[in-house]
């Protein structure tokens, strides 16, 4: 019998909880003693669900789909797909391919819904499809002169390709300069606080993936002949159907945490790792501080970290080490940029946005069908607006008569916007909705909640360009695995974060030393190809 190995997992988000699950499934507790440290008192990281006065907020919006069948099967194993219509499906007469024998969401809470994705751009008071489609409505909303400008600009981009040394050129090569100026330039600067010309093109390749005018044309042709894409099919930004937990993404991760604990995982909440101790080239232990300020040292054989690389390297520097952290490594880690996030939930009776689509929706009057509305207007700070009613009817206490929305803002921790009081932040959100004529006045708002999220978006500029000098050093600790969005400083989707954990656990179980498979998840060469049709 082999001796049990002790594993310390830092972070209770998708990556950390997936790692614990993969280690402990199939009686894994016989081989591994797993302890998970979570700095907050909730699970899911930015994939959590926030509850407020009977309503629920999805922080950032999370569509459940993946090109990796392992992930799709994993999710379905945790929360089975719906086998009967949800509340809004019934009321609106909507039909999905229901799962035979699946649970009824009207009777069971542990269920994954099938949802139809609608996301649009709101520009100068008009709605545009996202990604931009070449429809008559698009041309009409642009106006003849602008449409011609966009068309000729795109034709020029086919002939004259710019070197993809930055995100600006990446977008222009795929959409033309005119469309880039309308829909990408201002929004990207709003999101990152930097002009696209100083952001790496790698961010575009990871987030926009294969989307271009040609992809849009192909997608339009598919719709014309009646082909519908299901969850996991096609390019990421063109997915039309996705899965979604009845009570938001946090429900799934809360369920996984319970399963992990049932399988033998020790989970400690409100445990902030402040020091990482190294000995003889390996990580020996971590020191965490609890809610009362008490320090505890936790030894381990293997360490899986999803904490921000910036914090991890500083924790190693603060710990006991036989070899001090080099100044260059600290400089790279401390220079890694992040974009922080504030969301404001507002409850209203109605929005001044008419549903001019042929998609039926709840509400009186009916609400627009969007999950997200991208706000390209640079005169307001809000970047996106979520309509939680459309994610799941079970997120809203009075879904028939109230609209529960989330205004998403991008900022830097410590700046003036971040430091606003809740009242100031809520008042600004209301003023901006009034300015955009989405609501009429402050009196329309019945309830509100503001939530701040640190390090929500790892950014691709500054010392990010030197990450290739930092990752080999981190990998040099043979028993340390960096996983997840912040753990790798990569703008991963939720499924990518999970796969990094799956790959790390596979290495641990098989004894593989090379960690390139863990780092190669969600890179151009590995993950972005469209799922093959069978």
UniProtKB/TrEMBL annotation:
<dbReference type="GO" id="GO:0005829">
    <property type="term" value="C:cytosol"/>
</dbReference>
<dbReference type="InterPro" id="IPR002937">
    <property type="entry name" value="Amino_oxidase"/>
</dbReference>
<feature type="domain" description="Amine oxidase">
    <location>
        <begin position="15"/>
        <end position="484"/>
    </location>
</feature>
<feature type="region of interest" description="Disordered">
    <location>
        <begin position="86"/>
        <end position="108"/>
    </location>
</feature>
<dbReference type="InterPro" id="IPR036188">
    <property type="entry name" value="FAD/NAD-bd_sf"/>
</dbReference>
<dbReference type="GO" id="GO:0008767">
    <property type="term" value="F:UDP-galactopyranose mutase activity"/>
</dbReference>
<dbReference type="Pfam" id="PF01593">
    <property type="entry name" value="Amino_oxidase"/>
</dbReference>
<dbReference type="GO" id="GO:0050660">
    <property type="term" value="F:flavin adenine dinucleotide binding"/>
</dbReference>
<dbReference type="GO" id="GO:0016491">
    <property type="term" value="F:oxidoreductase activity"/>
</dbReference>
<protein>
    <submittedName>
        <fullName>FAD dependent oxidoreductase</fullName>
    </submittedName>
</protein>
<feature type="compositionally biased region" description="Basic and acidic residues">
    <location>
        <begin position="87"/>
        <end position="108"/>
    </location>
</feature>
């Amino acid at each position: 019998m082999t001796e049990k190995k002790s594993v310390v997992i830092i972070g209770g988000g998708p990556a950390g909880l997936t790692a614990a699950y993969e280690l402990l499934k199939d009686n894994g507790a016989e081989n591994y003693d797993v302890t998970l440290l979570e700095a907050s008192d909730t699970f899911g990281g930015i994939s959590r669900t926030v509850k407020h006065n009977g309503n629920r907020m999805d922080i950032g919006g999370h569509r459940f789909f993946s090109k990796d069948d392992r992930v799709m099967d994993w999710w379905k194993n945790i929360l089975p797909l719906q086998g009967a219509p949800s509340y809004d499906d019934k009321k609106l007469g909507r039909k999905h391919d229901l799962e035979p024998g699946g649970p009824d969401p009207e009777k069971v809470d542990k269920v994954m819904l099938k949802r139809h994705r609608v996301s649009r751009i709101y520009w100068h008071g008009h709605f545009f499809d996202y990604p931009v489609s070449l429809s008559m409505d698009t041309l009409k909303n642009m106006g003849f002169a602008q449409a011609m400008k966009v068309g000729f600009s795109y034709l020029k981009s086919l002939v004259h390709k710019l070197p993809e040394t930055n995100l600006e050129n990446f977008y222009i090569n795929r959409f033309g300069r005119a469309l880039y100026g309308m829909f990408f330039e201002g929004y990207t600067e709003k999101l990152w606080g930097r002009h696209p010309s100083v952001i790496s093109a790698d961010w575009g390749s990871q987030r926009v993936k294969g989307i271009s005018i040609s992809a849009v044309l192909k997608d339009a042709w598919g719709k014309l002949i009646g082909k519908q894409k299901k969850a996991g099919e096609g390019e990421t930004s063109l997915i039309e159907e996705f899965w979604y937990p009845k009570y938001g993404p946090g429900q799934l991760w809360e369920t996984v945490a319970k399963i992990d604990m049932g399988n033998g995982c020790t989970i400690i909440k409100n445990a902030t790792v402040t020091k990482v101790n190294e000995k003889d080239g390996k990580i020996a232990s971590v020191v965490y501080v609890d809610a009362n300020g008490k320090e505890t040292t936790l030894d381990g054989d293997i360490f899986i970290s999803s904490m921000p690389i910036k914090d991890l390297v500083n924790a190693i520097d603060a710990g006991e080490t036989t070899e001090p952290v080099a100044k260059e490594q600290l400089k790279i880690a401390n220079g890694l940029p992040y974009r922080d996030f504030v969301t404001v939930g507002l409850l209203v009776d109605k929005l001044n946005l008419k549903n001019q689509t042929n998609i039926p929706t709840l509400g009186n009057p009916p609400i627009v069908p969007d999950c997200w509305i991208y706000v390209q207007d640079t005169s307001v700070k809000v970047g996106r607006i979520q309509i939680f009613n459309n994610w799941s009817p079970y997120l809203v206490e009075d879904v028939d008569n109230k609209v529960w929305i989330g205004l998403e803002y991008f900022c830097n921790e410590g700046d003036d916007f971040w430091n606003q009081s809740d009242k100031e932040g809520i008042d600004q959100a209301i003023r901006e909705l009034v300015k955009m004529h989405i609501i009429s006045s402050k009196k329309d708002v019945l309830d509100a909640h503001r939530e701040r999220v640190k390090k929500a978006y790892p950014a691709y500029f500054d010392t990010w360009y030197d990450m290739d000098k930092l990752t080999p050093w981190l990998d040099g600790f043979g028993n340390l695995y960096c996983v997840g969005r912040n753990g790798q400083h990569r703008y991963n989707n939720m499924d990518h974060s999970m796969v990094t954990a799956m790959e790390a656990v596979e290495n641990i179980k098989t004894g593989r030393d090379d960690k390139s498979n863990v780092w190669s998840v969600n890179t151009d060469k590995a993950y972005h190809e469209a799922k093959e049709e069978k």
